[in-house]
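Sequence in, structure out.
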Amino acid sequence: MRIDEAELQHLARLARIDLKPADAARLRQELIDVLGFVARLEEVEGPHTADGRTEPSGRRTPGDDRPRASLPVAAALEDAPEADDAWFRVPRVLDRDEG
């Protein structure tokens, strides 16, 4: 796997990391190592379906999927760091030109 300087800077911008030039080589190598490990995991045999998804183990059962009353707004906002009327307030993450 190869990660060039442009890809590294792009990933740093997406992750909102202030990447110092002195740290770039180390981070690039760490990313290469992680991606290499993920590639090795893809080679592991396991109980896969025809489309490559892993079969569930059966240890967990899905929750009851029936409509029920929603959490009251006041209770939902109770632990929110900031709220505005009936809405959570969160910091802007994406600029308009980033999509």
